[in-house]
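pinging the channel bc i need a second pair of eyes. not urgent but kinda urgent?? the chain im working w is below, pasted from the shared doc
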Amino acid sequence: MDATTTHLVDFALRAEYRTLPSVTVHECKRRLIDTLACMVAAYDKPLCEKARGVAQRYSSTTAAASVLGCTWKTMPEAATFANGVMLRYLDLMDTYLSQTRGHPCDVISGLLAVGETVHADGKSLINAITLAYDVFCTFCEAIDINSKGWDQPVAVGLATVAGVGRLLGLTREQLYEAIALTLVPNMTMFRTRRGELAHWKGCAAANGARNAVFAAYLAQDDFTGPTEVFEGKYGLWDAVGKFDWKINIGDGAPHRISQTHMKCFPLVYHAQPVAWAGLDARPRLRVDDIRDIQIETYRLAVEMNGTDPSRWAPKTRETADHSLPYILAIALLDGAVSAQSFLEARLKDPAVLGLMSRIKVSEDASLTAQYPASAPCRVTIRLADGSNVVSEIVNPKGHISNPMSDADIDNKFRECFKGYGGDEACEHALRELWALEHCTDIGQVLKLFEART
């Protein structure tokens, strides 16, 4: 076992609910409620239906894992994938910004699936989620794997297997093998997030969590994996470069679950500031008077969402919600950004395409210098009379410096639940989720969402 794996295993085995500060427990419940809101909001989307169809192939009378909204049960790996696609589909989930970027809530689908099969209680789930967030976020702090060509499911897998290992009660040796069996077979390429974005953009992290669950079960059955998976020849260090992974929790360093940013709009985090800027500017102008628009923001936002030609002619919702010109055009034209903003008719709307053609995107070095501590942008709209309307956003609503309140989280959950179930079921789910630490069997969590299929 190399030193990096030893460090990770030791950290995971030390994680205990009783050591968690009350504020961390509360923040964990906020993230779980937010994640489940994302899942129910995406339930009826075609790709989510397809993912549930995949999971149903593995259903049986002896299977023990639930897929949200379904009467049948399936294998934990299949439930992880189906629920993971739902939580990810609308791009409404939380985000962590560091050297590597990603969405730590991707771990939750695997932890729910495995926790249900072992009848874990609410405290165990909170501990596992908090642990997985710590692993995910500190890994992102330690190394930029994206610039090396690798994608965030690498972090999702490592984080998920740590939390799943605790729920399964893996021994030290088994957890080592589970980490090896997660990492070596499942490196994922960053190509997923470049060019015209496909369905896989919303599936890759769910697959990363699924792979981790499968690896944990292999290790529980005493399968062994490669040795020295980080520091050995052809290990992760050879792929991404040597790095020092410090999982520095305690002694003043917070659990990272309190440091993730949440979203108000269903789109990539780096476009959240632009959406807010558009909504801020809209009351101060007439769209017909717009001559041209300049978006200035930090380098990463420009590279991911404002350079590829597909961002000016998105053919899929996955591309549109990663397009700065599309998001700004929608905010200015509609005065709102929602899941309805990405319907096929809107992608082809001449009014949207026409306004997008007048938008330019560029980096401002002073804004780049503020990232990742802040996520700033500046939108300058030149009108027909020569005057300018300017909107600047330092941190969008949901950023840890501009956080959503508990009431905001509740309202987001209610809004997402509207198309899924009734008011009574919604309020009952909220009450139970806010009291999660008192739950005796987390199988009850997915039972809060009335079966639909």
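so The longest helix spans residues 122-142. and Residues 269-393 form a domain with the 60s Ribosomal Protein L30; Chain: A; fold (CATH 3.30.1330.120). — does that match what u expected or am i reading it wrong
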